[in-house]
Write the C-alpha cells for this entry.
Amino acid sequence: MRTIQISFLFLFALCVQVHAQKSNVSKPKHVVKLGITPIFVGEILPSYEYIFTDKFGLEAGIGFLTENYLDQFIKESNFGNTRLMKIGPSFLIGARYYPFRRADYLYCKGELKYRKYKEVYQEISGSGNTETIDEYERKVIPRVGLGYQLYLDKHFLFDMSANIGLNFIKDFQFGSNAPIKNTKLHFGLGFKFAYAF
C-alpha cells in the first residue's frame, strides 16, 4: 500500500511539473492586431505587439488614412465637390504594462499616435484653369489608457481599451496663410481584433 502511495505522489509531481513547463511554453510573445473603431475616422492601422517579460510589452503600427467619416458626419461642409481625398500616413508606438498575467486580462498603456489627413482643394480660376492646393490636418496624440483582453480561444482575442490624452492639431486649408495650430482633449475607445502566438 505504501508503495502505491509513493508511486502516486511521484506521478502527481511529474504531471504538475509537465503542466508547468507546458504553460510556460504556451505564453504568447507576439500579438498581431487590427483596430476596428479607427475605421470610423478613416484609419486602417495594423499593429504588432512584442511581449518582453511577463509584465511589459511594446506595440508599434503603421497604416494609412482615408476620409474621416465621423468628422464628415458631424460637420457640414460646403466644399464637398471641390476637395479630393488623398491617402495619408498613420503611425502608432506604445508600451503596455500587464499587472496580473502575461498578455492577458487588464493592462495599462501609454502610446503616441500620429495621423495626417490629406486633401487637394481644386478651384477654377478666372482664366478657366484649375488651381490645386494641397491641404492637410496633422494630429499628434499622446495618450494613456486602460484595457482588457478577452481571449476567444487560445490564439484569437478582442483587445478593448479606453484612452485619454491630448490632441495636437496642425491644420492647413485653402485661404490660410499659415497652418492653424490647436490643442484639444482626446477621449477614445479602442476595439481591436487580434491573434496571439
In short: The chain has a mean pLDDT of 85. The domain at 28-196 is CATH 2.40.160 (Porin). Residues 105 and 149 are 5 Å apart (CA to CA).
